[in-house]
Design brief:
Keywords: Signal. It comes from Sporothrix curviconia. This is Cell wall protein. By secondary structure, the chain is mainly α. It has one domain (about 20-165). Helices cover about 50% and strands about 5% of the residues. It contains six helices and two strands. The chain binds 2-acetamido-2-deoxy-beta-D-glucopyranose. 2-acetamido-2-deoxy-beta-D-glucopyranose binds near residues 98, 99, 124 and 127.
């Protein structure tokens, strides 16, 4: 009983730590409050948790990242925060799905500086080691993405254990 409780607590702590990144992305965008119109960064930051929900369309966070740059400008701080959103892991419900969804829309994100970034995926997914290393690398140096969707780029870089999802 005790052992089980300890394991469950440990699992909960790990899950919380990983899903904490959603809060981290929101916080980064929130700090862009000197850009755009007053309140705009906060409003955009408030939209980030919704696009990272397990049930959200995989393309929605890319469109939001474009919106962030469109509204707040292309200062390196804005680009960095928007890039963090593009590269963030979308929540994942392992009891409802076994593999993540990645956006197959070649037009997203439209912002050139945000292209070629691939997202983190749940570490329980086979192949996530490759994808998560690629995700980290792509934030430093984006992969070539001319004519490619995020799903295409991930596949080209060696990760294919996902469901491609068109923009809804
Ligand atoms: C994809 O990941 C799932 C979950 O880890 C695993 O069961 C499955 O075997 C993987 N499929 C491929 C083709 O690697």
């Amino acid at each position: 009983m005790l052992a089980k409780a300890v394991i469950l607590a440990a699992i909960a702590a790990i899950a919380e730590a990983r899903f904490g990144q959603e809060g981290a992305v929101q916080a980064s965008i929130q700090t862009l409050n000197t850009f755009g119109q007053p309140g705009q960064a906060a409003a955009l930051a408030g939209q980030t948790p919704g696009v990272l929900l397990a049930g959200a369309n995989a393309c929605a966070k890319l469109a939001l990242a474009d919106q962030i740059v469109a509204a707040l400008g292309n200062d390196p701080a804005v680009i960095a925060a928007a890039a963090q959103l593009v590269g963030a892991e979308k929540n994942f419900n392992p009891s409802a799905q076994s593999i993540p969804t990645l956006c197959s829309d070649v037009t997203l994100p439209a912002t050139a500086a945000l292209r070629g970034i691939v997202p983190l995926v749940d570490p329980a997914v086979l192949g996530s080691d490759v994808e998560n290393a690629n995700a980290a690398a792509s934030l430093q140096t984006p992969f070539g993405a001319t004519g490619l969707s995020v799903a295409d780029v991930a596949k080209a870089q060696g990760f294919s254990n996902f469901t491609a999802q068109a923009n809804a």
